[in-house]
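Handout for the seminar on molecular recognition.
Each group receives one record of this type.
Step one: identify the two inputs.
Step two: read the structure output and locate the region that could contact 6-O-phosphono-beta-D-fructofuranose.
Step three: write two sentences on what you found, then compare them with the reference statements printed after the record.
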Amino acid sequence: MARLIIVSNRVSVPLPGGAHRAGGLEVALAPTLRRHPGVWFGWSGKVVPRGEVATQTIDQLKTSYVVTDLSEEDHQEYYNGFANRVLWPILHYRIDLAEFSRRDLTGYFRVNQHFATELSKILRPDDVIWVHDYHLIPFAAEMRARGHANRIGFFLHVPFPAAEVITVLPNHERLIPLLLQYDLVGFQTESDVGNFVRYVISENRRTSGDARIFEATEHQIVFTHGGRQTRIGSFPVGIESREFERVARRAVRSSFVRDVMRSLGNRALVIGVDRLDYSKGLIQRMEAVERFFASYPEWRSKVTCLQITPKSRSEIQEYHELEEAVGSAAGRINGQYGEVSWTPIRYVNRAYSRSALAGLYRSARAGLVTPLRDGMNLVAKEYVAAQDPEDPGVLILSRFAGAAAECEWALLVNPYDTEAVAGAIARALDMSLSERRERHSRNFAALSQNDLTTWGARFLHSLKQSPGMSIGTEPPRRRSSA
Ligand code: F6P
């Protein structure tokens, strides 16, 4: 039976005792890994001196975790540099924050080459490879250059912006077309697909390339180019909503959640949970909360906003500056509106377990998820799933999050319009039980149609449709050029 090889920058190797870091990527991949025996390949999380870079294998149940170290230079140029100071801001429409250097681009390609070389050592001809996220755009091209004809799919977890934005990326014409070396390229939303397809068509026209649309169905587009075919489609990441609801139901009875709720007295809880990242709109969110207390004084002392924001990418200047700015905004609002017996905003930089968060979501009257741009945003979906259907809270969601395409019954807001977000908070807190139930049941129904198992299966099924080998169902055959 063919193996599934997952390739991503972060690899979540299960730690003894079951505790592990659960970012979007790790959560999304868990059910697929449970269903398919295989390998998860990527960075070990270790940064070591150049001469000490090693690759090791850790076998756990059905999965072999094959992880390789990064040298200090690689970490700086590939991860902190090109991936997170160039690609991340541009893909999130923050071209003002992009800091391009040729050196970082070279480091980015070098790490992709290193990953390809290491994976080549263990690759079998019938392995199916699924590559994740913006760190690894050139990975398929590197594998093809090493003579591997395996079927390779790519999924972008973050947005793909409009052509006018992506073309700001220096050397985009060298990097982005490499996505066509994959057999399948998946995006979170139809709008990301449209942006990518428009980019390919306009670049192809400009360079008189040979890319052609071979087939266009309702959900997928197939390009032919250089003798190969690449499928493009949208595969919105889902969550296990029923299971999450069960976790939340149990978690509200935990001593942790009870203690938090007791500490609030009878105040309503409004919750936000985000990595400390400028794409999450935290400054604008603080301003919205400030406006809320200014414009709706009747809610002062009656509501507490809890913002849980684990730090991330702290070595990068912009993240460091953001940390100071959000902390000082929270302090300013608490200073202005707080009383000795009431703190308007509780702001914490710690990470909490998924079950602790599930319990807090279920206890919160409103969930504030207001990124300026987000590929999907699983917090929005988890907030919906965690609610008690008999007495649900209200999701306030940015229209610029991928999740807005499915959670249409949230209060959809423009996160830049802080007055409107303040109004949405007041509306959520005042909303009648019948309207809350109606909105929640419609959102929950939408989420139930697209759980994580379905997501992984849809992607792999689509990958199987491309010329090449399939996972466990077809005999290995060599790929012929299209
Ligand atoms: O949103 C993209 C993503 O890769 C998530 O899957 C993940 O939770 C987050 O970024 C973490 O980023 P990093 O690996 O840089 O900490």
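Reference statements: Confidence is low (pLDDT under 50) at residues 468-482. The two ends are 25 Å apart (CA to CA).
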